[in-house]
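User: Reviewer 2 asked us to show a designed sequence for the structure in our supplementary figure. I'm pasting the structure tokens here. Could you produce the per-position amino acids so we can include them in the response letter?
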């Protein structure tokens, strides 16, 4: 599921703090806005196998 809240892609270089928006561009500088949510799954997660095993065990 994609998040509706976006953050300015150039906020580190242009702004003092992150600028959040619902549009595709930053309202202050006009740069592209990108998804602000982190990825929910990392295929290279070294502990993923153990977390899934714990979930199965505690059901």
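Assistant: Here is a per-position design you can include in the supplement:
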């Amino acid at each position: 599921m994609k998040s509706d809240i976006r953050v300015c892609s150039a906020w580190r270089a242009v702004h003092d703090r992150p600028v959040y928006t619902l549009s595709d561009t930053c309202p202050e500088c006009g740069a592209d806005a990108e998804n602000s949510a982190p990825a929910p799954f990392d295929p290279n997660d070294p502990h993923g196998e153990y977390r899934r095993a714990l979930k199965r065990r505690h059901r």
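For the response letter, you might also mention the following. Residues 48-57 form the longest helix (10 residues). The longest strand covers residues 6-8.
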